[in-house]
Each structure stands twice: as C-alpha cells, then as structure tokens.
C-alpha cells in the first residue's frame, strides 16, 4: 500500500471512528476491524449490507471504497468515493481516496480533489507532490515547480518526483537548480539510465562539459553504447575543443547505429564547423547509401555542397528535401537561407518568391524575402520596402520564437523611423538569442535611437564579451581540421 493510501486509511478510520462514537452497534466499527485484520472481502460485503440501511452515510461509502481498493477493484472504489462526496463534498477521507485512485491512472480528475484536500491539510507534502506530478504531466512546469518547492527536502522524495522536478526546472531554463535536483536523483539510484542522461543534459546547459562526459561514461562503455549519450558526449567534447574525441564518438555512433541519420548529420555539422566539407560529404554519402530517402541527410549534404560552391548539386539536394519531407520547417527555404548566408540576396529573393507561390505561410521563406529585399538597400517609401516589412511581420506572426525574423523587422522599423517598435523587437530578439552578436548590436542601435542611454554601457559590455568569446572559439577551432581524404579513395565505408 502506498504512503498516501495508508494516510487515506488512517484518516478514514479516524473520521468514521468519530462518527461511530457512542454507537456500539453501528457496523462501522466492525468494518474497520475487518479492514485492519486484512479481511477486505468481508468488509466489502458488510458495507453493502450496511448501505442498504443507511444509503446516505458518507463514512460507509468511504469504507466501501477502501475495501474495494484493497481488492484491486479501482472502478468500484471510485464509484464509492464519489458516492460519499455526493453526500458530503468536503469529506476528507473520500476526497483523498478518490484522488489517490484518479492519480494512479494519471488522470487530471485528481486535481480538483487534491486541491479541496489541500485546503483542509495545506502542509501535506504528499498532496503537493501529487499536484506537482499532475502539473508536470500536463506540461505546466511553472505550476509544477511551485508545488514541488513546497515539499521539504526529505529522504522520502521518490526518484520519480525528483526527475519531474528537475525536468521542469530545465524546461524553465533554470539549469543550475535542475543540475542539483537531478544529481540527487542519480545519487538515489545510480543504475537509473534516465536519471543519468537527464543530469548530463542539465550539466551541458550549465557549461559543465567535463562533467557531462564523466556522467555519461557508464552509458558510453556499453556494447552497444547508448545512442543519445554518444551524441551528447560528442557535443560536450566539441565544446571542450576536443574535436578528435568528438569525431571518434560520432564514428562509434555510425558504426553501432548505421541506420540512425542523426550521427551522419552531426558529423556533417562538425565538418562545417571545421571547413572540412569533403569529409562531411563522404560521411553523409555513406548515410544516404543506407537511407536514400532521409530528408535530413540530403539537407546536410546540400549545405555542404553550397559551402563548396557546388550550387547545382546543392540545389538538387534541396529540391529532394522538399519532395521527401515538405513539412520539414526549413526544407523548402533551405536554398534561399543558404543564399542569404553566402550574401547573394538577389538569388535568395528569387528562390523565396518561387517557393512562396506554393507555401505562402512558410515563416522562413517570408523571412528570407524580407531580409533579401532589405539587403538590397531599397528606400523606405518604396513598394519593395513595404513588401519586405509585410513579409517580416508575417514571419514573426507565424513563428514567434524566430529571433532572426524579429531582427529583420526591427531593422525595417528603424529604417522607417519607428524607433520604439524597433527597440521592442530588438529586445525580444535578444531574449530569444542572447548569444548572437548581430542581434545584440541591433539592440544597441535601436536603444540609441530611442534615447535609452542609461542601458548602453551594459549592452556594449555584453557585445564585447560576445565578440571576445567568438574570437576565442574561432582561434581554437582552427587548430583542428578534419583530414581531407583523396578523391580516388572513393566514398567512406561505414559498417
């Protein structure tokens, strides 16, 4: 019996005991005795007999629910508890019994029952934990954290509660506290793979990259190694500028899971970072040989071809991406986005217009059109400028968390003299992408235009920090370049 149900039984006995005081012939005392002695079947039978004589007795209905729970008849138990609550809606033992059974089913119907019980016993940590779990299950992490924070830090916390609490803290981007909570979960149960991986994710987000690798090591040493752990460990190694080890981990992933496209794509991204484009193409080719209809692989190869100046081959891959996965967020816009990155606004505009004819509500294509027109330097009183502004506004509306769309709209507003709106959008873009130097610089410009001089020193300081961090990363990344293989060697062989 769970701790909560024990409390239900205890309070049920207390409540019905008080009701029965002074009534020596009342069947309640007999039913309580049967339950204490483990004779749930007889207790259930006696409840039925007693309820025929006293059908409006909430205590008897509650005991009927307790007996049914002991007999693993949850449906019958819930019916009994709700019958008791129909008689007395605030009867605590019935509230708790019904809440426990609804909670077992992970049903949100438990929430109002627990909230009513909470009013009677506001300091009950079990009620808070159950409310927290139910909030977690409906993805309401703000409310879940509020409930979990009310529970004293005691050894009785279950590993499940700790993981739910830690996961919600992570979803709210409170990674420092998430690391502490998830570390406690792993200490409680070191063999729990989910707890180990979740802790590593939290450590990654707090910049503890060495700890990530140490935490994941037991999962990496398995045969085969855990696939998600391989990918996360590779990212941690690259963040530590240990590219050789990152490459080794991704190769292990490809060897162990040759049908998993994520390892080929991760290797392609690493190749892009280190300007080792042909190596990336070789690896992605090996993936495409196994998974010829995987859109992510063709997208990755298309980007690599673009960087190599192989525009026709790149375009073929991007066209195939659209055919294979039209719902891929940036599939149809991939070529246009890449042209923007290569500072070819006219070509980006051409591709965007062609794609928008069939996909007018694609936020990326609308962004590309807006940025391409803006990059061409059209005057703010022109039809082209107004078209760019409308496209940027549409991109922001369609994809509210798209920082670059807010950036281009902010720039357009600034150009047309709408400085307050430009500054608001610039600040929103920084919140979405706080480590983007270009977006930070735009906020500085917008802030100057609105006269917010008191904020400027702090913003300029942050921009300089971003530039310094980017410079350090560029310097260290250039120390390692993946070896290019001679073309005559043929495509990379993958098991």
Structural overview:
With 495 residues, the chain is mainly α. It has a domain at 3-122: Tetratricopeptide repeat domain (Serine Threonine Protein Phosphatase 5, Tetratricopeptide repeat, Alpha Horseshoe). Helix content is 73%, strand content 0%. The protein has 27 helices and no strands. Helix 15 (243-256) runs antiparallel to helix 16 (261-273), helix 22 packs antiparallel against helix 23 and helix 24 runs parallel beside helix 26 (437-450). The longest helix is centred in the C-terminal third of the chain and has 22 residues, at 456-477.
Quote the CATH topology of the domain at 3-122: Serine Threonine Protein Phosphatase 5, Tetratricopeptide repeat
**Gyration radius from CA atoms, angstroms:** 31 Å
**Care to count the β-strands?**
0
Find the structural class using helix and strand composition.
mainly alpha
CATH superfamily of the domain at 3-122: Tetratricopeptide repeat domain
Counted by DSSP, the helix tally is 27
Q: What are the low-pLDDT stretches, counting only 5+ consecutive residues below 50?
A: 1-24, 474-479, 484-495
Beta-strand residue fraction: under 5%
CATH class bucket of the domain at 3-122: Mainly Alpha
SSE topology sketch:
Elements lengths: L2 H18 L6 H10 L3 H14 L4 H13 L3 H14 L4 H13 L5 H11 L4 H13 L3 H9 L9 H13 L3 H14 L4 H13 L3 H12 L6 H13 L3 H14 L4 H13 L3 H14 L4 H13 L3 H14 L9 H8 L3 H12 L6 H13 L7 H16 L4 H13 L3 H14 L4 H14 L5 H22 L18
Helix pairs in contact: 1-4, 1-6, 2-3, 2-4, 3-4, 4-5, 4-6, 5-6, 6-7, 7-8, 8-9, 8-10, 9-10, 10-11, 11-12, 12-13, 12-14, 13-14, 14-15, 15-16, 16-17, 16-18, 17-18, 18-19, 20-21, 21-22, 22-23, 22-24, 23-24, 24-25, 24-26, 25-26, 26-27
């Amino acid at each position: 019996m769970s701790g909560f149900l024990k409390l239900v039984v205890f309070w049920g006995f207390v409540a019905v005991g008080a009701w029965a005081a002074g009534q020596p012939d009342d069947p309640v005392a007999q039913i309580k005795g049967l339950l204490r002695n483990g004779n749930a079947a007889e207790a259930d039978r006696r409840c039925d007999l007693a309820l025929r004589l006293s059908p409006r007795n909430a205590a008897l209905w509650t005991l009927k629910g307790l007996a049914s729970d002991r007999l693993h008849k949850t449906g019958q138990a819930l019916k009994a508890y709700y019958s008791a609550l129909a008689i007395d809606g605030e009867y605590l033992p019935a509230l708790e019994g019904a809440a426990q059974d609804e909670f077992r089913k992970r049903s949100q119907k438990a929430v109002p029952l627990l909230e009513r019980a909470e009013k009677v016993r506001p300091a009950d940590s079990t009620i808070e934990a159950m409310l927290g779990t139910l909030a977690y299950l409906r993805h309401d992490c703000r409310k879940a954290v509020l409930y979990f924070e009310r529970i004293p830090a005691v050894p009785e916390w279950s590993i499940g509660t700790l993981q739910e609490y830690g996961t919600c803290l992570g979803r709210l981007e409170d990674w420092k506290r998430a690391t502490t909570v998830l570390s406690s979960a792993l200490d409680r149960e070191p063999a729990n793979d989910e707890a180990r991986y979740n802790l590593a994710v939290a450590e990654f987000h707090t910049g503890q990259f060495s700890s990530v690798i140490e935490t994941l090591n037991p999962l990496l040493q398995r045969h085969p190694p855990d696939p998600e752990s391989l990918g996360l460990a590779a990212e941690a190694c690259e963040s530590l500028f240990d590219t050789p080890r990152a490459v080794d981990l991704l190769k292990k992933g490809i060897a162990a899971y040759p049908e998993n496209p994520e390892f080929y794509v991760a290797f392609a991204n690493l190749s892009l970072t280190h300007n080792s484009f042909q190596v990336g193409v070789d690896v992605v080719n090996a993936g495409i040989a196994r998974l010829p209809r995987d859109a992510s692989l063709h997208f990755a190869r298309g980007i690599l071809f673009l960087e190599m100046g192989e525009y026709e081959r790149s375009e073929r891959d991007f066209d195939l991406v659209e055919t294979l996965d039209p719902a891929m967020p940036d599939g149809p816009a991939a070529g246009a986005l890449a042209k923007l990155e290569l500072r070819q606004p006219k070509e980006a505009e051409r591709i965007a217009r062609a794609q928008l004819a069939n996909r007018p509500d694609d936020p990326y294509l609308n962004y590309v059109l807006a940025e391409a027109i803006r990059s061409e330097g059209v005057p703010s009183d022109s039809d082209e400028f107004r078209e760019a502004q409308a496209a940027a506004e549409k991109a922001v509306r369609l994809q509210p968390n798209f920082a670059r769309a807010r950036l281009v709209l902010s720039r357009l507003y600034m150009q047309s003299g709408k400085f307050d709106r430009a500054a608001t959008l610039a600040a929103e873009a920084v919140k979405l992408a706080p480590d983007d130097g270009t977006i930070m610089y735009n906020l500085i410009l917008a802030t100057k235009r609105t006269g917010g001089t008191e904020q400027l020193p702090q913003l300029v300081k942050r921009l300089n920090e971003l530039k310094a961090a980017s410079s350090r990363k560029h310097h260290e990344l250039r120390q390692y370049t993946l070896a290019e293989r001679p073309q005559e060697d043929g495509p990379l062989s993958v098991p």
